[in-house]
Amino acid sequence: MWIAPRLAERIWGRRDLGGWVSVSRIGVHGPIGEAWLTDVNCEVETGGTLGALLARDQPARTAPPLLAKLLFTSAPLSVQVHPTDVAAHASGVLASGKDEAWHVLEATSDAQVWIGFHQPVTARMLRATSADGTVLSLMRRHAVRTGETLFVPAGTVHAIGAGLVLLEVQDPIDVTYRLFDYGRPRPLQIDEALSVADLRSSRVVIGTATMATRQILAVAPRFVLERIESENGFTLRSDGSREHIVVPLADGATVDGRALARGSAVLVPAMGDPVGIAGAAVAVLHSGLGPSPCLAMS
């Protein structure tokens, strides 16, 4: 199932996407911050939207298994946090919390992110520093390099800096609580953020891409992110329980002999036919638990 990206304007985005997305910008006038690769409103090659196609096969279904995006940053994003499974279940509305992973496609020499805290903090400290703009001083800073992958569990306070192109993969829960936003005119959700934030100290979990044929980059409760590059190609076979999303990491990747352009994606259904993937490196996002995707290397 071939999917076209949906562009989203963001105040921290870019006008030059550096060749990562080739879709038309008709109707988009401001800086682009995100290209949604698996949103329900993305168009599919066979016509209509991804959401409509999924609902046709499974009427009770409202979303794809996972959300994949490209992020383009020219300014820092807000300091924010996403709900945990516990908070999601308590809400009675959300299906789950929101874990995410960032695979770094491009990074300027001074690009950085902040994930979690140096040492334990209190809710009072977090509220006060969010109000006076010093919250980043509590957080663990990481200088980012191309090829790294960073895992951000639900409940982890985090922020993304300028100068980055990221592949972001996450649970399909579009809920974000902002703590600090550099004075920009967007609402904050301090109380909600404090109710879900993990106030303990944390460490940054980093995976680094190598020249290995296959490498697991991130493992979350509901997804596995893998980087694959095989000179002879490989076959992706679903086992009937997992769905898979294939995203190119460079020009030259093919799926069943067709070029897969940067900024696009292919969804392989759980009951779908095997697909052959070759050429340049790709990211394969597997729904479900555990690093045991169904691949046959050529």
Task: Give a description of the structure.
GO terms for molecular function: mannose-6-phosphate isomerase activity; metal ion binding. Its cofactor is Zn(2+). Keywords: Isomerase, Metal-binding, Zinc. The protein is mainly beta. It folds into two domains: 2-207, Jelly Rolls, CATH 2.60.120.10; 210-297, Jelly Rolls. The protein is 11% helix and 37% strand. It contains four helices and 23 strands. The two termini are 22 Å apart.
Short description:
The chain is mostly beta strands.
Features:
single chain, 6-stranded antiparallel sheet, 7-stranded antiparallel sheet, mainly beta, Jelly Rolls
Q: Which CATH class of the largest domain applies here?
A: Mainly Beta
Question: What would you say the CATH architecture of the largest domain is?
Answer: Sandwich
Order of helices and strands: EEEHEEHEEHEEEEEHEEEEEEEEEEE
Number of domains: 2
Approximate shape: globular
Report the sheet with the most strands, covering strand number, pairing sense and barrel closure: 7 strands, antiparallel
